[in-house]
Write a structure and sequence with these properties.
GO terms for molecular function: acid-thiol ligase activity. This protein is an alpha+beta fold. 17% of the residues lie in helices and 35% in strands. The chain contains four helices and 14 strands. Strands 5, 6, 7, 8 and 9 form a five-stranded antiparallel beta sheet that branches. A hairpin with a 5-residue loop joins strand 8 and strand 9. The two termini are 19 Å apart.
Length: 195
């Protein structure tokens, strides 16, 4: 496993020493740790953020100073991935620290959309996800639980679309609204928390 920020893999299975279900062990030249929100290493078996050090790390994201300050630490970086490590040092991928996906070449954070949509007076709960459309493009889908006195309708969907366009960049606005009775609490980001 690796990231484009490192231009190389930093976790890999070693021939003759493969553990199914893992992303392997650190490659020589890289230090890989699972850390908490304060970048402190966590014990084996505890889920946290992946923190990687290595000489091949990029200098930083172009014109994204706030993000650089949040994730870059010299030649180390928080990758934005959730992992845990077993007692033997093998790493296990759990998911992303945030629901992040790319739409039309732009990165979108689900919570940013959810934070705006939940403010609409007719919305009780919301969860945002991405899916591939029939045209094989990534589109944003909002799963919406309405307030008890509100019924789903085409007019309501148009109202929510107008509301979102007035409050967000157009590429972040959901293209599909699905009305549901409840939001399952099994979404990774809610169960596992930040890293």
């Amino acid at each position: 496993m690796g990231t484009s920020e490192f231009l190389n893999g930093f976790l890999s299975d070693i021939p003759g020493n493969v553990r199914p279900g893992t992303t392997g062990l650190p490659i020589p030249g890289y230090k890989v740790q699972v850390v908490d929100e304060n970048n402190n290493p966590v014990p084996a078996g505890v889920v946290g953020g992946l923190f990687v050090s290595g000489e091949s790390l990029m200098i930083g994201y172009w014109n994204r100073h706030e993000e650089n300050q949040r994730v870059m630490f010299g030649n180390s970086m928080k990758t934005g991935d959730k992992f845990y490590q077993d007692e033997d040092g093998y790493f296990y991928y759990v998911g992303r620290c945030i629901d992040l996906f790319k739409v039309n070449g732009m990165w979108v954070e689900a919570h940013e959309i959810e934070d705006i949509l939940i403010r609409h007076p007719k919305v009780y709960q919301v969860a945002v996800d991405d899916e591939i459309s029939e045209e094989e493009l990534t589109q944003i889908v909002a799963y919406v639980v309405l307030q008890p006195s509100v019924l789903p309708s085409e007019e309501l969907t148009k109202e929510l679309m107008r509301y979102m366009k007035a409050n967000m960049d157009h590429f972040k606005c959901p293209k599909v609204y699905r009305y549901v009775m409840e939001i399952p609490m099994g979404r990774q980001v809610k169960l596992i928390g930040k890293c």
